[in-house]
């Protein structure tokens, strides 16, 4: 069994994507790890001009959840508070606050194989 903890500051996620959780198999920069093929990112956009971009690779899927306020996932949809979206790569996602603020999380993992 393994336990980890890490204290993040608000500035760590302000107007950028913060990689908070990664898998043990990947050599990534996340401070927390799971024994699963998953990555979690969080961002808090505090300026209407701020935007962040995320590259979702082929064979990967992501769930995006708007934690607070509204975020525009450019070219796809605007997520209001508590709204979620599932996307499948390859895809470039650009996030902007609908108004002055947006707080959201991306949970990215391997794509489920279709049952035949």
UniProtKB/TrEMBL annotation:
Transmembrane segments: none annotated. Gene3D superfamilies: Jelly Rolls. Residues 25-109 form the Quercetin 2,3-dioxygenase C-terminal cupin domain. It comes from the Bacteria. This is Quercetin 2,3-dioxygenase C-terminal cupin domain-containing protein.
